[in-house]
Model the fold of this input.
Amino acid sequence: MKISFLDLLSCGGCQFSILSEDETLFHIMEKHTIVKSSYLMSHDSDEDCDITFVEGAVSDENQADRLRAAREKSRLLVSMGSCAVHGGTASMGNIVSESGLKVWSYDTDTFEGYPEGLAQIVPPESIVEIDYHLSGCPVTVSSFDTFIRIIENDSKPQSAVLSVCSECLRKERAETDLAKGFPKTLSNSGSPKESICLLAQGYICLGSVSRGGCGALCPSSYGTPCTGCRGIGDRIMRYPFHETKQDMIKKIAYANRTRKRDLEEGIGDDLRTFYLYTLGEPVLRRRHESAVNRLTKRKSD
Amino acid sequence: MAEGEVIKVLKTPGRLADSADIVFDLSDKEPEVIIRGYGFRGYERILRGASPENIALIASRICGMCSHSHQIAAASAVESALGLDVPEAARRIRKAMLLAEMLDNHVTSMLFFSFPDLLMPTSSPSARSIVNIYKMEEEIVKRIYALKSFASTTMKAVGGRAVHPVSVAVGGVSRPLYDDTRSALLGKASTFLNLVSEIAKMAKVMLKRNSQLLESFGSQECMLAAVKSYNEVLDPLGQDICVLGSDDGKWEGSVSGYREKLQTHLVEGSMIRRETISDTTCMVGPLARININRDAYSRVGIPELDDFLADGAVDRSAFHRFTARIVEIACCWKELVELFSDDIISDDEVLRQAEIREATGVAGVESSEGILLYDVEITDEGKLERVRIITPSNMNMELLEEAICEMVMKDGFKPEDDSWNNKLGLMFRVFNPHFHDAVF
Done:
């Protein structure tokens, strides 16, 4: 197969992750032809290809044009990583106007010769049709590898819908005293107790509303709450009456036998706690009353 | 700057994390070169209003290649503001993360980015790639790649992931490095002495073969800045910074003292901020570190590197940017062996509690491409008000532009010429700018 990698608005970490896994990298180099990759090739190619992996969100016309061109040239177009699937942290720029974002860093918003910005920073699926999504920030290399091998066998990849919670080893529940502080964080309360669910200890762990496939690395192995880097779970994506923050508050209240209204005030940074990777997600933006719409100001400011 | 007869725009050569182009203004006898970076995401604004405890998580997303450095520098800046000392085991775990990332970046830079040019300098651009080299020399590529694999394995073991680690928190790290993992890493690291020597030998042969081309890059008048190593060979978390002037004048002081010296400039038409000291460009990165810490680096004890470290061998020339990376591959490996040999890194206490309050703080770490600095201000409501990030690309970009300018003055502007393009490509790869953290 001819494989291509297209970089849009991202940190470059997804491609770099693939470079860091010998088996995956050598497998691609042995079995397939890489026609385009900013890390591996010194020339640009506009050859037709079987798969283009798109890394990053879309913030300007130039990126949108390159994406459209890639769509035309590729049999399969695959969004790779959270920025390409939901907008990722790249779409956090939607919290202020494009001008406001620039002025903060440069004291000016005038940069001649730069392409015109879009009204919103969006994932590629808002511009062109995407065939498959590979989640993760960065993409989980095992899922990338599995995807390649499934396509090699002319099979169709299935979308995983399990949550991070379903993969987590912290199964025990224990009542905790939230009066000692909510939300708990590693910095204000230290490491959580082992094997007990983080929600039940008062940490905001997004495992229950986030897409699995990572083996619950953060909560299970590192004792850090899930921040939802693999994106929104199926329940919130499919059902409009579910919403990340409200679902989480409900779950934390239930796990701690407390009232929802007693919890909401304690969370000071909704934006980065619940929507760090999903502020550009079009499914959520289409819900007019959604928090994502409330927090997005790029076009109106 | 409008494109026309005297203004030419070229895309940056590939084989590095590129999202930039080069503008050549050829209207004067002395050409002007400006590198324009793309991919602005506004992280400094995104961090405004965030809880300081979230800074490491978000900052990591600025650059995939140096995500460990961003995460640690950002958390350290908050800790510096709060006057919080992290436990010794956490400090060592962070140091291992930085060294492993530096090792990984240097091997990547050498094997993936520069190797194809040095091995096949006269081949066509499409032939010059690691993919083609792999087809011809699979065993050599796999052998060198083993060192990158070790670096990735180490980053995963100490940080949770090779890209965007999960273990760093304000106050330390979330999990100790268990003794069995430490022993396994030490065992693995100990097997690489021969490989590090082999790489040094191979690099010598390749550099010799291309010496004429690389020496034509010339040398640059500039200051040098690096974190000072004392007892260790290479200490990316060191507290003192040394600045060497082009006249060999020297300044040594704290990170905040160094921060005060820096001045920000904008070049019309480019989103890459430039930082200078008293209007003089200041180089950071491997070549600055090797110049400033040559005595410490000499303790690495690998005879094959002696020529690279000999008196007079190290200067400010682009040629030595390659040799500095080779030397640092050995230094990182040596330091990792030292770190994993001592069981202090496996102590249980790895996290101290932080009380968020109004404060300001600065911290810097040595990332693979040079000093990465975070300057933060926390409000009385416990939110980040201002975060200023100064990356190695902000320091080094003008030097790269100067080097390209010199090349154009000497050789002319010949984008249709393969050897000219090859030289331009090599120039980028010796500087190895990470454009994701040039415009963020």
In short: Chain B has a mean pLDDT of 93. The longest strand of chain B covers residues 359-367. The two ends of chain B are 22 Å apart (CA to CA). Chain B touches chain A through 79 residues (CB under 8 Å).
